[in-house]
Give the backbone structure.
Amino acid sequence: MTLILNRSEVASILNMKDCMTVVEQAFRELAEGTAVLPLRTAITPPEGISLYMPAYLKQMGALACKVVTVYKNNPVKHNLPTTIGKVLLQDPETGNVICIMDGGYLTAVRTGAASGVATRYLARKDNGQIAGIFGAGVQARMQLWAVSEARKLSKAYVYDVSEEAVKKFIEEMGPKLDLEIIAASSADEMMKADILVTATSSASPIFDGNKVREGSHINGIGSHSPGARELDTAIVKRSKFVGDSYEACFKEAGDIMIPVNAGEIPKEHFYAELGELITGKKPGRLHNSEITLFKSNGLAIQDTATAKLVYEKAVAADIGMNVEI
């Protein structure tokens, strides 16, 4: 039998705290060499792109593949979202697909979870810090949720080109996190924050890196192609640069690829992978005046660890529908 879980069922059982726990374990396995993480495979039919993201976590006993498609004409032609994701979870002992679940909400939470883990290792440890979230979409919500799990915040700022999106963000996330959230009037106002998150669709830098205060931590989330970046050269140069994966950063992350290719920083400016901090192979933040930066590209190990967590929670709660395939 194969368990089927839709988006609402996944959302009903997946919380940020538990997701951060398993995502941290996944990055630990990656650093210790017990994770199998093949390169993401892309197929480009005429109407869009289809991505296949497999991973195996030996210690966690998790084996899965996420299938993500991006079809720009879906909303108009088929009344479907532009981006659709499903995760196939397998039993590593038999290879059988034991669960098929919606991957949209799962992807959003696991992406936030990686930033939450990075914030634990890289942000200053004092309570009462201020978060600044660039963007007001689904991912921005997950980022603030994760940061608030990692550090006790005093308040947060949010900045987006859409005033309506900001209004909805505040109305939803303020009560959810019991946190004061303020609509920032400009990117410069966001520089009051101690922990900055960029979760936008911008292809060019969204703030002046020279204005970031010493001691800040940054999670860079939105840009994920060689020619796009949310972060300018100034802030990359000023920061201790940590990525989810060295390979992914130098294949997909314009934030570091653009200044490296321009000769503005050396490749060696990449300080560590997140897993190296988790395992203690390299230290995270060394002093309170240091600026730290985590670049997230999104790895299949995150999906695999989270999918196993969701499956176990669903079985325990008797959620979903079992079908014979």
Summary: The chain has eleven helices and 16 strands. The first strand starts at residue 2 and ends at 5.
